[in-house]
Amino acid sequence: MKVNKRTWIRTMCAAAAMAAVSGAAFAQGAPLKIGLLATLEGPFAAGGADGMRGAELALSQRGGVVAGRKIELVKASSNANPDVAVNATRKLVEQDKVEIMVGPLSGGEGIAVKDYSKTQPQVTFINGGSGAQATTLVNTSPNFFRFNTEGAQWMVGLGKAAMDKGYKRTMIIAEDYAFPYSQVQGFMAEYCRLGGKVPVKAWVPLGGKDYASVIARIPKDVDALLVVLGGADAVNFLTQYENAGGDLPMMGGSITVSQDVLNYKGKRRDSLVGTISAGPVADTFDGADWKAFVADYRKAYPVSAGGFPSPSLFAFVYYVNMKAALDGLAAVNGDLSGGQAKYREALSKMVLKTPTGDVRLDGNRQAIGTTFVTEVVKDAQGNLSTKVSRKVDNVDQTLGIKKEDFQMGTRDVPACP
Amino acid sequence: MSAAKWRRAMHTGLTGAPVRARPQAVGRAGGRSAPAAAPTVDSYADSDAPRWLKYLWRTLGARHVFVLVFVLLLPFVASPFLTYQVAAQSLIFGLIALSLSFLAGYGGMVSLAQMSVAGMAGYAVAVLGASGTATSLGWAWWVVVPFALVIAVICSTLIGWLSVRTDGIYTIMITLAIGVAFYYLVLQNYTVFNGFQGFQKVYPPVVWGINWRDPMPFYFLCLFWAMAGYFFIQWLVRTPFGIALQGTRDNARRMNSLGFNVTAHRVAAYAVSGLLAGVGGVLLVWYNGLITPGSVGTGWLINVLVIAVLGGMKHPIGAFLGAIVFILLQTFAIDLIDRERFNLVIGGVFLAIVLFSPDGLLGLWAKLRSRFGPNQVLTSTPQRRQA
What we know:
heterodimer; A: alpha/beta; Rossmann fold; 2 domains; 6-stranded mixed sheet; 13 helices; 39% helix; B: mainly alpha; 17 helices; 68% helix; disordered C terminus
């Protein structure tokens, strides 16, 4: 009896092993593999999932086939930590042998993956959603492309809008890492030039919960606050500021004034109406391409299936980058020979049609594109959304400043107290 | 688990590997009676072969030779990815987990700060050595690495000195608090640790014309230090110090009344574990090429404990087994199941292993051996009962 049971278990193990081996053998085909990396864990998990939706949308618009070759997406996840992102990328590139890599999502990750891309010259890397300036500004990698504009470019026009509103002195509250540095630099470059003053900058840790010390530091003589916080951090800050009785007008960073923050429930919610912000997307932009993109997104990912009411910034940038990867493939008819030389040539010269207008690349393979200055409005149903107040085209990475005068954003640069 | 229970659980396993001690070592340590170390028939006892050769002949089994050949040949047959990301990373985390399983398995002290100690060594390499950040001092590697290890040992000793007076859950609490404090320190300090962004481009040096960042050299570097750590612990637990440490684990009061300084032994164990974790930390920062606060966050403090428990704490090899399973799962779980649910697979496997074998993979191995292996007449009985 005992022997029988033992034999049976051994047989089952052998059968399982054979099934695994033969299954692997059947899976041999020759679709073109594209790696896709986004943050499905950690602070940007919701944004990462929406980024994946955007990338999938770009592929499904082409029916999953480019130049007669079937495209297979190989997905990986990170958690906004650079070491995790590099490990995940390394798996996609070296183990799954993807030929094109799209990702990652967060600023610090982008810099680390760009550094890694130098060791893998046979693969073309296209950014996902990361928006740190340094990725394509210093120490550039010849096989890393970014078809989305970055953090500083997203803030162009906000400085002028602030001066128009009469905000002459502003305090900045921002998270303490590469992406908000870029955002703050983009705002201050313009704001300081027009005569605005920033007496205090408060850098808070990512994922912070307690903003009491920051709120206590707000000077009496400032006209407005610029809040560059993401997701949960922004909601925490707004709630605590409201409880502390604060009533200064607010300006938001590109990922601060997004749907998940606008829909939080709080007394101060109504006071958000009129908040100005800037970014690569605006919910109610009336361009035909944008409307078509939103309709496609809503059709593919209705709210009941986990999508957002309107595509988030991350869905948009992943869509744009994946579309660039596929359009480039179509342009060279799927030819990736010669170390992908032709493909990269096509990418560098491409004029990419995006839902918000045409995008070109500069010499560092960084996008030159459109930025929207927006204002929060309340519609008839009481929902808050962003309305375009100004559209700025052809924003380049040095924000129109001469290259030798341009300074990359850090904690202390630029300054105009 | 209370401290007493923990120790009892450890104690029941004592007939297993750890205390296959040489009788004279036990004799010198006083106290404990050696568990029936009956003199085996040794056909080579009378020959004039050197002593180390006799020792090898007595202890080396077929499985040791097999594992050794396997780890030496692996990089020549496996892809660079498997060599670097799976094998080398497993060895590094195995080494860090070994520092914990030495503390917990042989000293009865569960410290959650082992990853922090490794991180301190890693940060020391990044701050003192060369990196992409301007604040790094750029010293030569042969100054930096000893410095990093000394820092790790000192910090670990201090952590031990703080926490050895506590027991069980309180030790865990204190070491967790230290670990989290270190995380927030490196997250918010900009003058030394460069805050959230940490240090990029911390690469291993080029020595003897070999670029140690390449997968194969790096693998052998990790293999060397992992094996060094493994054999060091194997040797250490049979020395008088190691035996006395296990004595303090089993009954501290009795050891104290026998004239052993329990606190000193425990602090010394922390120092040893600090050295192991420090070596692991240096290798880890070279492996990643960067270090950020995320590397020493709460998640990783817990992961090291998971690796140690997963493998089993009764034998040093458990840490490495646990690390292999952990890294394999972390790397490949996303291929098995829907991308948004892959953490479920990881958690499920951990749960299954711990549920069916409280002693981790080592316990599972012992169970399987007694069930499917050649029917052993007498020796298998106690293992079965234990299972």
